[in-house]
């Protein structure tokens, strides 16, 4: 589970959410922000499949309710792995613009690979080898 404040979220943060979901569909993200950016919310729901989106300020019991719901959903994924098929996000093919690939797509892939490589190295180091 990932609980994230996406206040003023940079493109790298959105890329992280998308790449994590692609590589680990069992991850459930609860995103929080005070901003009402519907484009950002739609992007994160569609491309990163965030589990919940919460507007700030929020009350602790509300956050606790959503964390418990995410933990319950995760247990369902463990019990029925086929449910994860619905959580898989498709990797969008770069769009062609006058014979060249979209720079934004290329940047996302590059940043995503860097983030995933760093996470893999950290996991290996924490595992002791």
Describe the structure using short key phrases:
13% strand; three-stranded parallel β-sheet; Rossmann fold; 4 helices; 129 residues
- Known CATH architecture: 3-Layer(aba) Sandwich
Helix-residue proportion: 40-55%
What CATH calls the topology is: Rossmann fold
- Strand arrangement, major sheet: 1-2-3
- CA-CA gap between termini: 25 Å
Q: Strand fraction band?
A: 5-15%
Structural class: alpha/beta
User: What number of domains?
Assistant: 1
**In CATH, what is the homologous superfamily?**
Response regulator
Radius of gyration: 16 Å
Structure described in brief:
This protein is of the alpha/beta class and 129 residues long. The protein is 52% helix and 13% strand.
Can you walk me through this structure?
The chain is α/β, with parallel strands linked by helices and 129 residues long. It has one domain (2-93): Response regulator (Rossmann fold, 3-Layer(aba) Sandwich), CATH 3.40.50. It contains 4 helices and 5 strands. It has helices spanning 11-23, 38-47, 60-79, 103-126, and strands at 2-5, 29-33, 52-55, 96-97, 100-101. It has a 3-stranded parallel beta sheet with strand order 1-2-3, covered by helices on one side. It has a two-stranded antiparallel sheet with strand order 4-5. The longest helix is centred in the last third of the chain and has 24 residues, at 103-126.
